Inverse folding.
């Protein structure tokens, strides 16, 4: 009995010792990663989790600011028509690189790397998943180690989106790069940190880059540990309780809880950028009849119905009641980036919505649901399952529209069923929906890719199944404006083209913006030196190089 | 017995082949595919989508895809993951240890708790202890593991801060040797508690009912009448016989040990088989999904066979020719 007691006492002491509050060893920040990607190189992986590489390892040739304008970063200047960096016909862009930049393994960073990056994209055997702007690149001429001449097949006004990641030529044996390549998994970069190891599903370890080109005293941290924590709810709770220094990444919808923690005196810093709109939550209308693009949708094709829905939704109730103020009223089509417009949403006016529907012949039936020519105003309303906050305002919308005589049936689905391709039965692509709700439109400072999604050519069909659309909407005037904007290199003219597209889009009510998420970030207050005045906020090497503990 | 085992193994081959066809077709019928961009992401250009589809072999007719997969399976090439580019076998291999550690411990804990509680409940039938244990077992069966997991997490990790909330190690400390073992033990307490909950509830009721049946047998009364100590009667004679069905139930849970606990592994950030399965399903990573499902099918077949063999071995009255 005494021996058992001794063993038990030793075990208790052991466990008690291990339970003492953890203290940091060295200066390593702990970042929680909610959605672990399959690969960490964004060039070969389309998942949002791989963008964490841009926070620590990979650096862009041109760095975007919150307003969508760019700073030269690995480049020495921004090529423009005025400085001769862009040819008059827009088909030649000359990029001058800074001198003295090295990869983290000490090798020099040169124009050869840019040319190699393009050739990898162009190789049909490479598994690239990166910006569509590369499609317009014909080839890259290396003029000298610090000058790259990018020749376009057509004028490419969105060239500043190129080279957000450059591949290190010396680390590849050929341009046929598969997903199994070690560089696709743990990419080498020029940034302040270097990938050391990745225990899939558990943690990713980075250490300080000893050859950081910007400043030998940077980065200030010795390393970063990224902990994979797939459950968002418990991750946020752990972060608020101080178990991580930052979380990659949560949306503006999550800031409410963090702010509450900060208000209670917990060591949390919350920063918001109210001057710019984050991602907008959209209501996508199917304007074609369930996959048959030759026939209009029986209810939503009526512009009066779309206007009534627009006026019948109480957006302030969503922003203030559900999001705790962490939302922005936004009504613009192109609402962010350098061409972003500040347009207020349609005011909430259910009385006017009712009058519009009455006048248009939508009569209320005995159950209060409107009917016109035998067609009931009853539709399916879907979003991505799993987000509890979103379900709340989804129900608010359902409730609001019921009051004006439109019945919505909620039936949520996983994201890949909503967003899947045409051949995979994706609901948006195949047109198998009425109203969908999801965020979109803020992935890039240039609106080219966003505006392309609504062109007629982008609608997937049996003959061209790899396109994508949110609306099954076709408008020849819009298409012509898009085509003009796609090759217009004069920014002022291009801006006016986007504005005209916005006028058509908003006037037609192709889709309805519900609210814009707040651009915001939060971190444990013991982490200092966090700058957020970039397009990607705190998640850029221009910020992480300065992180340190106070 | 040997011929019986061989016959069962031979019968398993067409069964597994049929399962592979059904599983393959069911995956293909599920909407959504591996080429989906995430919410809010810029859509890949149609050219890129078409290129990736060709690289994944998704442009081939389904029969060609199936034959390519099943042929690879039989020759040891289980394919590569769409998501990571890794080989399926290596991905599964690196996840198995975590899952076995957690689910194995949960099973051990479940047995250590359910055997004494079940035996005592049966022995002291209709006592306060019996009612309490049975009630707790029913409550355990009715409790959803995700709710229980989150409750334990909030109470012990976030409120009391006695236990870590996730993972298997404290990434802010560099524990070594005995300290590392202690750190690991601390991290295992919550997930093992959650996982063992349902097993404890299930096994307790099973042990209790099995013991009750055995305690009423004539040979137990005979043993008692022989003057043997009560402890010997209960633990040696009764429990030995009652153990046969319990062992069978435990063996049948072996496939579950491999497949892991999906929700618990997500809540506690454990990189096991269950999470790999869910992640692959969400991403429509067909090669990984098919690999896991076929392993599961094989394990179920083998576990059933093993359970039958063990049952015969434990119970001399049963025999297979």
């Amino acid at each position: 009995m005494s021996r058992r007691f001794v063993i038990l006492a030793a075990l208790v002491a052991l466990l008690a010792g291990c339970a003492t509050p953890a203290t940091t060893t060295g200066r390593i920040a702990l970042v929680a990663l909610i959605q672990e990607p399959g690969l960490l190189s964004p060039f070969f992986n389309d998942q949002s989790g791989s963008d964490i590489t841009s926070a620590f390892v990979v650096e862009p040739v041109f760095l975007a600011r919150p307003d969508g304008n760019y700073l030269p970063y690995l480049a020495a200047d921004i090529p423009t028509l005025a400085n001769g960096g862009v040819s008059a016909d827009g088909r030649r862009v000359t990029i001058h690189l800074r001198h003295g930049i090295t990869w983290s393994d000490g090798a020099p960073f040169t124009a050869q790397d840019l040319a190699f990056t393009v050739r990898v994209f162009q190789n049909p055997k490479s598994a690239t998943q990166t910006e569509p702007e590369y499609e317009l690149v014909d080839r890259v001429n290396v003029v000298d180690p610090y000058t790259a001449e990018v020749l376009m097949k057509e004028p490419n006004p969105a060239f500043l989106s190129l080279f957000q990641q450059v591949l290190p030529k010396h680390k590849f044996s050929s341009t046929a790069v598969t997903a199994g390549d070690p560089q696709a998994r743990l990419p080498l970069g020029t940034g302040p940190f270097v990938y050391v190891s990745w225990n899939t599903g558990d943690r990713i370890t980075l250490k300080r880059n000893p050859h950081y080109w910007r400043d030998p005293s940077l980065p200030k941290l010795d390393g970063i540990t990224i902990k994979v924590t797939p459950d968002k709810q418990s991750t946020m709770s752990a972060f608020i309780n101080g178990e991580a220094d930052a979380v990659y990444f949560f949306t503006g919808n999550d800031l409410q809880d963090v702010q509450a923690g900060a208000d209670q005196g917990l060591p949390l810093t919350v920063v918001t950028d109210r001057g710019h709109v984050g991602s907008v939550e959209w209501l996508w209308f199917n304007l074609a009849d369930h996959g048959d693009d030759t026939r209009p949708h029986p209810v939503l094709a009526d512009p009066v119905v779309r206007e009534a829905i627009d006026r019948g939704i109480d957006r302030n109730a969503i922003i203030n009641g559900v999001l705790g103020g962490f939302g922005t009223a936004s009504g613009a089509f192109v609402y962010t980036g350098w061409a972003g417009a500040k347009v207020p949403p349609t005011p909430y006016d259910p009385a006017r919505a009712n009058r519009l529907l009455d006048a248009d012949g939508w009569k209320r039936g005995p159950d209060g649901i409107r009917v016109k020519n035998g067609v009931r105003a009853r539709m399916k309303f879907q979003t991505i399952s799993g987000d509890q906050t979103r379900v709340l305002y989804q129900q608010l919308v359902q409730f609001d529209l019921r009051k004006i005589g439109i019945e919505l049936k909620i039936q949520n689905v996983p994201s890949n069923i909503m967003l899947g391709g045409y051949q995979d039965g994706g609901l948006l692509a195949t047109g198998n929906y009425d109203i969908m709700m999801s965020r979109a439109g803020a992935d890039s400072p240039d609106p080219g890719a966003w505006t392309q999604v609504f062109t007629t050519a982008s609608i997937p069909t049996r003959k061209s199944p790899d396109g994508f659309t949110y609306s099954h909407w076709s408008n020849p005037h819009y298409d012509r404006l898009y085509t003009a904007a796609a090759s217009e290199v004069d920014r002022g003219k291009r801006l006016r083209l986007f504005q005209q597209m916005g006028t058509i889009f908003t006037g037609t009510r192709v889709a309805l913006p519900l609210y814009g998420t707040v651009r915001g970030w939060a971190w444990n207050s013991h982490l200092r030196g966090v700058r957020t005045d970039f397009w990607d906020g705190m998640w850029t090497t221009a910020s992480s190089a300065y992180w340190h503990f106070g | 017995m040997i011929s019986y085992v061989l016959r069962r193994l031979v019968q398993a081959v067409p069964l597994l082949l049929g399962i592979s066809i059904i599983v393959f077709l069911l995956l293909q019928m599920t909407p959504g595919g591996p080429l989906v961009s995430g919410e809010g992401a810029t859509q890949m250009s149609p050219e890129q989508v078409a290129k990736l589809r060709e690289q994944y072999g998704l442009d081939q007719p389904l029969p060609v895809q199936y034959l390519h997969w099943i042929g690879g399976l039989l020759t040891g090439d289980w394919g590569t993951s769409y998501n990571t580019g890794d080989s399926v076998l290596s991905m599964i291999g690196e996840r198995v240890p975590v899952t076995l550690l957690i689910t194995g411990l949960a099973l051990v804990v479940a047995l250590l708790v359910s055997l004494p509680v079940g035996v005592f409940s049966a022995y002291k039938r209709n006592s306060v202890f019996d009612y309490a244990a049975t009630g707790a077992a029913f409550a355990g069966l009715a409790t959803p593991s995700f709710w229980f997991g989150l409750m334990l997490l909030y109470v012990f990790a976030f409120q009391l801060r006695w236990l870590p909330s996730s993972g298997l190690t404290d990434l802010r400390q560099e524990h070594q040797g005995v300290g590392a073992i202690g750190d690991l033990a601390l991290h295992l307490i919550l997930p093992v508690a959650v996982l063992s909950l349902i097993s404890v509830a299930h096994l307790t009721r099973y042990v209790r009912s099995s013991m009750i049946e055995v305690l009423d047998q004539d040979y137990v009364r005979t043993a008692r009448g022989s003057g043997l100590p009560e402890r010997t009667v209960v633990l040696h004679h009764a429990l030995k016989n009652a153990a046969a069905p319990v062992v069978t139930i435990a063996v049948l849970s072996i496939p579950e040990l491999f497949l892991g606990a999906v929700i618990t592994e997500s809540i506690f950030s454990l990189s096991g088989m269950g999470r790999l399965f869910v992640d692959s399903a969400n991403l429509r990573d067909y090669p990984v999904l098919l690999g896991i499902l076929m392993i599961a099918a094989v394990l179920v077949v083998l576990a059933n066979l093993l359970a039958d063999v063990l049952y015969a071995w434990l119970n001399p009255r049963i025999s297979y020719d």
Remarks:
- The first helix of chain A runs from residue 2 to 18.
- Residues 1-10, 13-25 of chain A have pLDDT under 50 and may be disordered.
